Request: fold
Amino acid sequence: MATLGRLAGFLLTAGSLAESAGRSPFRSSRITSEGELEDTKWDRFTYSSAKPLLKEEQLPIDGAYRYPLLLRRSPRGRMVLLSKSLVIVNVVLEAERIEARRQPLVSPPQEFRRVKVAVHDLVADLTTHPTEYVLTRVDANVPAFGQALKYISFYGDDIAEAVLFREYLPVMRCYACGLRSVAGTQEILRIGSSGVLSCSIPNRARARAIEEVLFFLAERNLYRHS
Amino acid sequence: MAAESDDDDIGVSLRQAYLVFHSVTSPTWKRHLRLVESIADAIQIWQPSTRVSPVFLLRRKDEPSPYSVVLSGKVWVAFLGPLNPAVALRVFGAQADVWVTLGSYNIVVVTDKETLINEVVAWTIDNRINAEAWHLDDGLLVQVKYSGDRSSDPAWRDPLAAFSRHDLSPELRELVSEYCPLMASAVSRAARVTPRVLPDLYGMDAFLRDRIPNLRATGGGESYEGFGILTTVNAALSRFSSQAYSGTTPIAETECHFWSHSLLGIGVANLALWELSDFLERTLGEVRIPQRIAGLATIPVIGPRPELEQLSKTDEFWYRDHLRHFELNDHEQSRPLLHPITCFSGRDGYRATEQSLSAPLAVLASCNSERWSLLTLTHELTHNVIRGVLTSIYPQASDDAFREAVLMFGREPASALGQVKRLLILAAYQMQACEQQKPGEAMRPVPNSLGEMRHAMHRWKHEIEEIMVHVFDFLWFYGRDYEAYIRGIWLSWSVIPNIESRVPSYVLRTLCAISVNHLRGRRPVSPSHPAVEEEYDTQEAARAQFREVLTDLLTLPGGAHYAKQALEYLDRQWPLIRARLVARRLIVRIVETFLYSDALAAIVRGDRSAAGGAGRREGYTLKPEVFTEELIDNPLRFIGAYTDRNPPRPQRSLWMIQVLAFNIERSNGDAR
Reply:
């Protein structure tokens, strides 16, 4: 599988995508389908931009800057949209938003909307009831101490194992975390409370592992829709 | 036309204008609606029936002034709400003008196409939003369409009717006669317009129907307590109902008595206030601090020795999280909390009682500015918590209670509650002794006569409550951030006229609050040797922090009224202030040790949706004056992040109010 390196994007929803299964959920003509990502349930697309989005200096031959998009849809209408940078995903979503609003009222716009994640609840759950996943990174607000101490980040192979972390969890409000399978050695993904997600998909197994984490979150009712 | 997140890109701005409505009966009955640029323009055309409300037009910056042309010819104007403006812009924005107001009908959609207005009305029916559409011909109202006619669950009628027939004293009966139709009106209108507040209205009604007859049964002066409660509730309900439900269907016939909003009322602002109060109830209220403290009566003494005042200031006992571990019984844990009636009042300003919560009318156009920050509400609401706590730990006004208090010093406390009580009485006595002590005279260690105790308890009750409120507010809502706290309270005082005589008290209370950060009295010798600590002068340290912030306040445009006076007083009277500060140390310690918990404060101050980042927006990504459907958890944190040093700006205040009304996420993930 050709690697795309580190990917970033959002957990999203866009109305009933079950109805549009198999069809592109995008309205913008700048987005073209490239088929499935080798033997996975992830769809590949390309976004063509007239402007460089990643500060590229070199001009493309045909004048269009092309960026890969990866999309994984769930039957329940949620999806993950990833690219090489959050900047690209934001531009794509903005283009889609403008398209969706061309026909309001008559056809209620099905804009992509971010799905938030109850990260603090996830971290607390994994700390008190460790199951399939362990924490590899935790970012948290520390709201009780004003300007004196505002944010804390933890890194490690199994953060919840540390007594220090467990002791201080009650005074923290976690907003992002990284997850690793108990049996695995590498971090599968990082996820934030605002629905930001980052990961890499070097092979089919990792693509499947990401899907399993997302299913795990859904099973525990940790998604919150705006 | 307008979009929610790209004002910089397409140059959309909120432009304030006024809708002016006349109902003319001579020679024939005619009703007109006009749009003018200012209140002054409205005054020029004012008639006996005139009503007016500000509206905020979302206009491209390059568009010409809309005031003279926008309602000319044949147009439809749909009033609808309450609805998040971001949703209105998403659904209607491409085909019609969308304006925003502070009324319960907070959205105004303007178009010249009847087909579109029919779609708007149909959409409001599908989405259970109330709406009223006016067809205008050169401003003359020629046709009205309605949607939305929800009725309330009739279960409230019988108990309320029975309450109105209850056998009460004449003075209470008069108040109940006012209360019952007021509550009936509020409930029936809330069911139609803002069903989200209904459970709280039902809760208040149940509380009163239970409390008032019981008070009468106890006889004597207790009925006057009922008189006070009913007077407070009636005033708040009357304001709430008028402010929230004026300007709803039928708009032409529901006038708001807040005259600059007489056409559409200020329902969304009421909702914002309600959301704030609701958040505090769900977080701080659910901690049930007064009940936890009352429960200490059943706990044996705590700590290394019964007489806690004898512990060293560095003893680990003072710094443990006691509150989190004071348990509630099932009954206390499940007892419903009373949600106060929220309203705005020019006269009462910020004020909280157990049954009501008011904010000044000025915040409607000024809450973006620190001077009018809605965070001031936390101080008022804290009074309710502290009063509840004092009921358990402050001797009530009777000789028996005072005698018992004197006797406490001749024996060891028998319970944890006794220990805390003893500390508080000692604190009151120290405050008394500090005022009476002559130079060179030693202070008696404990009170030893009934008269002395009675005098001290009567004299210092109010001051003790105020100090506890300040320390509590500083810890729970400002996270020990002395700069934000001092700025916040002194700027909020700066807009109150003629309080020069209170400055000495305010100086002392401020010092008490920030001195909670210095209770240990030890700090590292240097940053490079954090483990090596030394004693320092804690009163001087608090004074230096206070001076630093007051001096900064003097540099603000417009200054901070009273800051100069406070600085002068602080410098001139420091030895006296210092002695008083020392005498109040025990009160500060009681609040920090028994009424505060870092872990529980994390619930009150945290926001699960705000990411990190050290910026001044506390991790929020909302753009000021840009409406969004993005949800936030914590209205207090939002207010803190988006209230700034800028002067009051109606557009920014409108935006903050709409965010508070529509973007607060419930624990189950519901959007408003």
